UniProtKB/TrEMBL annotation:
Pfam families: MORN. It is found in: Cell projection, Cilium, Flagellum. It comes from the Eukaryota. Keywords: Cell projection, Cilium, Flagellum, Repeat. This is MORN repeat-containing protein 5. It comes from Chroicocephalus maculipennis. GO terms for cellular component: motile cilium.
Length: 157
């Protein structure tokens, strides 16, 4: 069994780096996700006892008093760090410029969703999963969809 300091690559592309004991995560360690996020935690027999998730852009998740993009302050983290764009130029996602969504698809966070095939692929167009009815409804109701025509800000000459 794995013992001591080391790393372990999961089939999902997530990697664990840290302390291992009796084949389990045990002690200080972190999960590095393919999307760039990290989860640093203290583990006991494979279960995190305390930890902190940090998104790829540096935003730290707080499970109490989480006010990110809420009704009071709807700015994205990049806008908080770098400031707002001039009036009339909206930032649609935390990524600027946002990802280009394939025609007829939705950006569902970990990839693109095609509602006709009900398939989600990652941003390199590799298969992730089939959406069940609940996920399908959530994506259609919530996520950003590709525009039928491109509109972009054109500065006045």
């Amino acid at each position: 069994r794995m013992e001591g300091q080391g790393s372990y690559a999961l089939p999902t592309g997530t990697e664990y780096r840290g302390a291992l004991r009796d084949g389990m995560f045990d002690g200080e360690g972190e999960l590095l996700f393919p999307n760039g996020g990290t989860y640093r935690a203290v583990w006991h027999r494979g279960v995190p006892t305390q930890g902190k998730y940090t998104f790829a852009d540096g935003l730290e998740y707080k499970d109490k008093k989480w006010h990110y993009c809420d009704g009071y302050d709807r700015r994205f983290y990049t806008e908080i760090c770098s400031g707002l764009k001039p009036a009339g130029i909206s930032q649609l996602t935390n990524l600027d410029p946002p990802r280009k969504i394939p025609v007829g698809c939705y950006d569902c966070g970990d990839g693109f969703y095609n509602p006709e095939t009900r398939v989600i692929v990652d941003y390199k167009l590799r298969f992730l999963r089939n959406a069940d009815d609940d996920e399908h409804e959530w994506i259609i109701r919530t996520c950003r969809k590709a525009w039928d025509e491109t509109t972009e800000h054109k500065p006045k000459p």
